[in-house]
Fold this sequence. Notes:
With 276 residues, this protein is α+β, with helices and mostly antiparallel strands. The protein has helices at residues 2-11, 14-25, 38-50, 63-70, 73-77, 106-115, 121-141, 167-173, 182-188, 203-214, 258-262, 264-273; strands at residues 95-100, 144-152, 155-163, 217-228, 233-251.
Amino acid sequence: MISLLLELAMKENPILNDINISVANGVVDLSRYTFLEPISVGHLAIACKLNNSLIDISKCSGNAASFLSRMNFYEYIGIHDVFGSNQYVGNNQNTLEINDANNSNFEVFDRVNGILSGEPEKNITTIERLLAELVTNVEMYADFGVVVGQVISRVLHLVVVDKGPGIVSHLRGAGMFSGLTDDKVILESLKKGVTSGRGRGFGLWQTHEVLKKNGGVLLIRSENQLVDGVSNTCYNASSSWLGTSVELRYNLDKPVDFNEILGIQDANGVSNEFGF
Length: 276
């Protein structure tokens, strides 16, 4: 029991949990934080897009608040940016600022290509196609979503967070897995071909396969579940999320060939579907 609790503590993100609790309480004090990972930025952006009064303007100070300015946070949620024009765009090739998660937003893909400039073609192709699939999931199943990313010590942290029904509610709403517990439903969604009928059921499965082969990290948060998509382990999360967030950490020094995951024929089919 002790080892399981220690493992869960390693998976949980204390800053993200604190932010989600602050959101639930109705106010976020940015001055309390010194650093925010992309996953925390993504969750905060979605919550504040829905209700920007969550941000206490009088407490927009400190390193995290300044970092959010460079990530386009204040403009995205529609409030005054006390830091002025402070964005990373154009002068930093390691960061993907907050962007809408949709396949017509070519800036997202341009920025990802910029981040991966000079990387092996395997990395560029694999990340681009994973991103296309995850963004397509947002378009199909959620009200809206955001993409955030950053390279930290040769690891690409890429986050897609949405406001929607969540994986469990959506699949159950489609009449699937009614006899399974919430954690088992999410684990089923990682299998190839599992879909409510609106897609091919490849998105989470291929993300799972790529990160497993890469030795990376895949964490999925939906409702009150936290899923380690590499080890196929599910936990009760400390804070719930009404929607789905997918956090992947891809080791850039361990390239994975996308074609080897799906097989050449299927990979070409996916590339044609998304216009690559």
